[in-house]
């Protein structure tokens, strides 16, 4: 590819970074990295009433958490309004655009007539060829593009293939509103041109915008970037993605305990495939990503698949990295402040020792947090109802008999405590489970945990014996 590839992610800051937006940003980032190019970030904040600083911060934070960096400074579309006006005035001076003085009532009547007749073209060209001397006094006009009225507009889309529109069905777009503010259509074209964008990769809800924007490019004599319109993400049932399916902000997935690398891997496989490969390192993703293998059908969001993939990444993560990720998550989850306040070098060492056993079962960092409670819980620990059922009077008697034997142990480690417990169970004519299950309940307050002898080793002699005495009575 001879030209330097320049992609862009251009969100409107009217809310959080939607999961679909995260995928669009990822595809732009991957394509730019694959071709040694650049991905630019442009905040499309021309809707002044709905654009907020909080939303801008959420978008930037979400991209940063996903590990998607952009090149150069963030571009704010609103700050370029004078440039957009300049282009509209140029088109007007060249006779490629015109002043339209149609009133709101006239526009409403045109729309209603078009709907009755089943026409998609809503504006009837009322002021397209009229003499400006006919302009009503005191009315501020809009500037409309003189779009082609015959023939067709064609886009050779990298995902959708060749897409054709009849020009008779496309309106004369408004470029500049009556108050002098540019429309989205004009601003996007001018910004993409001025920023040197070579590839526009975005959702297929913008496909018709692609045809309309091509009219502006053609009128200006500018080359049209390569376009790739990605199908939207649907829910598992095939309907439009909603909050119940997972149409949440990227920040919500962070709070649910997903790892950025797992989210990237999951999102890249939503609508793009590379043979049967499901799991990609970042470098593999960059090396393999192309536009040709993005499907034309909507991808389906699957929470179970995301959880399983996240579990894979958790198991493959370094123990110290998981503790760091857990610490970052604590302010965002219920009960997190308890561990945050208790964190000390000694507790961190205990968590590090427990992590190999903890991470085998956890599918999210929140599950990892819950599973780690036994490490940092203060005595007397809370016992879940299912665990209480294991602590029968007989089981408590077994624990009471076991405590002195564990107290006599000089070297406290997993192998040593295992030897004591097994020998005790044999002498008492008990199956190992009859001792291990109440041990687990007393030490962790749960019915599942890492291997019980590892639990004893992690908790250490003093804490283990203290918890057992609490429950042995």
Automatic annotation (TrEMBL):
GO molecular function, a single term: ATP binding
Residue numbers covered by motif 'HIGH' region: 11-21
Record: residues binding ATP: 243
The protein's Enzyme Commission number: 6.1.1.17
Enzyme class: ligase
Domain Aminoacyl-tRNA synthetase class I anticodon-binding: 339-470
Keyword annotations from UniProtKB, A to Z: Aminoacyl-tRNA synthetase, ATP-binding, Cytoplasm, Ligase, Nucleotide-binding, Protein biosynthesis
Motif 'KMSKS' region, chain ranges: 240-244
InterPro entries: aa-tRNA-synth_I_cd-bd, aa-tRNA-synth_I_codon-bd_sub2, aa-tRNA-synth_I_CS, aa_tRNA-synth_I_cd-bd_sf, Glu-tRNA-ligase_bac/mito, Glu/Gln-tRNA-synth, Glu/Gln-tRNA-synth_Ib_cat-dom, GluQ/Sye
Reaction catalysed by this enzyme: tRNA(Glu) + L-glutamate + ATP = L-glutamyl-tRNA(Glu) + AMP + diphosphate
Compartments reported by the entry: Cytoplasm
Gene3D superfamilies for this protein: 1.10.10.350, HUPs
GO process annotations (BP): glutamyl-tRNA aminoacylation
Keyword Amino-acid biosynthesis recorded: no
GO CC terms in record: cytosol
Domain Glutamyl/glutaminyl-tRNA synthetase class Ib catalytic: 5-307
Keyword Iron-sulfur carried by entry: no
Assigned protein family: Belongs to the class-I aminoacyl-tRNA synthetase family. Glutamate--tRNA ligase type 1 subfamily.
Assembly information from the UniProt record: Monomer.
Role description: Catalyzes the attachment of glutamate to tRNA(Glu) in a two-step reaction: glutamate is first activated by ATP to form Glu-AMP and then transferred to the acceptor end of tRNA(Glu).
PANTHER family: GLUTAMATE--TRNA LIGASE, GLUTAMATE--TRNA LIGASE, MITOCHONDRIAL-RELATED
Protein name per the record: Glutamate--tRNA ligase
Gene name of the record: gltX
């Amino acid at each position: 590819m001879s030209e330097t590839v320049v992609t862009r992610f251009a969100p409107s800051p009217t809310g959080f970074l939607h999961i679909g937006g995260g995928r669009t940003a990822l595809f732009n980032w991957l394509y730019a990295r694959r071709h040694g190019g650049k991905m630019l970030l442009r905040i499309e904040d021309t809707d002044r009433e709905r654009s907020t600083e909080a939303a801008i911060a959420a978008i930037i934070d979400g991209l940063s958490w996903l590990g998607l960096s952009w090149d150069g400074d963030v571009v704010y579309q609103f700050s370029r309004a004078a440039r957009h006006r300049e282009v509209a005035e140029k088109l007007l001076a060249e006779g490629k655009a015109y002043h339209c003085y149609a009133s709101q009532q006239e526009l409403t009547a045109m729309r209603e007539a078009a709907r009755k007749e089943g026409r998609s073209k809503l504006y009837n060209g009322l002021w397209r060829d009229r003499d400006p001397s006919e302009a009503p006094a005191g009315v501020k006009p809009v500037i409309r593009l003189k779009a082609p009225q015959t023939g067709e507009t064609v886009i050779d889309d990298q995902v959708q293939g060749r897409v054709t529109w009849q020009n008779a069905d496309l309106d004369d777009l408004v470029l500049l509103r009556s108050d002098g503010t540019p429309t989205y259509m004009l601003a996007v074209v001018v910004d993409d041109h001025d920023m040197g964008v070579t590839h526009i990769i975005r959702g297929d809800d913008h496909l018709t915008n692609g045809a309309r924007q091509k009219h502006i490019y053609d009128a200006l004599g500018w080359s049209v970037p390569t376009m790739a319109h990605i199908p939207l993400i649907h829910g598992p049932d095939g309907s439009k993605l909603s909050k119940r399916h997972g149409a949440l902000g990227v920040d919500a997935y962070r709070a649910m305990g997903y790892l950025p690398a797992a989210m990237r891997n999951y999102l890249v496989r939503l609508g793009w495939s590379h043979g049967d490969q499901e799991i990609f390192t970042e470098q593999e993703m960059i090396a393999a990503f192309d536009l040709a293998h993005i499907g034309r059908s909507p991808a389906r969001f699957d929470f179970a698949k995301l959880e399983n993939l996240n579990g894979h990444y958790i198991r493959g993560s370094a123990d110290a990295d998981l503790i760091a990720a857990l610490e970052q998550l604590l302010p965002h989850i219920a009960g997190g402040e308890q561990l945050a306040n208790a964190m000390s070098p000694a507790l961190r060492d205990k968590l590090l020792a427990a992590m190999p056993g903890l991470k085998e079962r956890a599918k999210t960092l929140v599950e990892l947090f819950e599973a780690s409670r036994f490490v940092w819980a203060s005595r007397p620990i809370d016992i879940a109802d299912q665990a209480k059922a294991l602590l029968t009077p007989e089981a408590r008697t077994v624990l009471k008999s076991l405590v002195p034997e564990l107290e006599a142990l000089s070297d406290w480690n997993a192998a040593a405590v295992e030897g004591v417990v097994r020998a005790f169970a044999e002498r008492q004519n008990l199956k190992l489970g009859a001792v291990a299950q109440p041990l687990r309940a007393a030490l962790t307050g749960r019915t599942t945990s890492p291997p019980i002898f590892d639990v004893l080793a992690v908790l250490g002699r003093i804490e283990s014996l203290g918890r057992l005495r609490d429950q042995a009575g």
